[in-house]
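TA notes, week 10

Several of you asked for a full example with nothing omitted. So below is the full record: structure tokens for the whole chain, then the designed sequence directly under it. When grading your own attempts, check the secondary structure regions first.
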């Protein structure tokens, strides 16, 4: 795979996720029957102590979990691309979300919802040799060529974790979706690192 092929592969997957994001957002924010709040200005502690905002967050997670469209669209995409990459996805479980909120509340710094509760829907794209092209793809999304990708960064906790994270969203009042892109050579260590951090949150 060369740089152009890798960028096309990533753009295709991001575009599919963006279309799903827009469709679900239109469905949810019209149907929810509650007022969104500013995720960028709301701390995790404020979220936990405000019953309406917490219920709204849980409603989003529940509606997303019951939405069947990703199973149809992403399963088809994963099968079509299985010779080039691995695509997985999930909606965050309620217990996992509550553990995460509790974990953030136990830390000394102030954390805000937009950058903390940012993976209620999470997808993972694993590409052989991705790291060779990672910087170029990061630069593309960082430059805001794709306006729907509102945030991106390379997380590098070598030797335990390395990946490119992209966050799809529309505004500070809509929960973002996360896409992690890994090099297949980092998969084993990344999975171990992910399991370790999840165990830490559950132990709080």
């Amino acid at each position: 795979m060369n740089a152009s092929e890798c960028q096309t592969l990533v753009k295709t997957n991001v575009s599919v996720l963006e279309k799903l994001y827009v469709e679900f957002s239109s469905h949810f924010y019209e149907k929810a029957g509650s007022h969104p709040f500013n995720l960028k200005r709301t701390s995790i502690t404020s979220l936990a102590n405000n019953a309406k905002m917490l219920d709204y967050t849980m409603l989003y997670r529940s509606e997303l979990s019951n939405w069947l469209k990703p199973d149809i669209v992403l399963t088809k995409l994963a099968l079509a691309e299985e010779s080039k990459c691995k695509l997985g996805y999930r909606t965050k479980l309620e217990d996992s979300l509550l553990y995460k909120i509790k974990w953030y509340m136990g830390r000394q710094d102030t954390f805000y919802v937009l950058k903390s509760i940012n993976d209620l829907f999470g997808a993972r794209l694993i590409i052989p040799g991705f790291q060779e092209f990672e910087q170029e793809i990061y630069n593309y999304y960082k430059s805001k060529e794709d306006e729907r990708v509102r945030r991106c960064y390379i997380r590098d906790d070598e030797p335990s974790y390395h990946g490119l994270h992209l966050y799809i969203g529309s505004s500070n009042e809509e929960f973002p979706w996360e896409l992690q892109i890994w090099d297949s050579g980092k998969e084993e260590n990344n999975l171990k690192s992910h399991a370790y951090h999840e165990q830490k949150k559950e132990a709080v």
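The mean pLDDT is 92. Use that as a sanity check on your answer.
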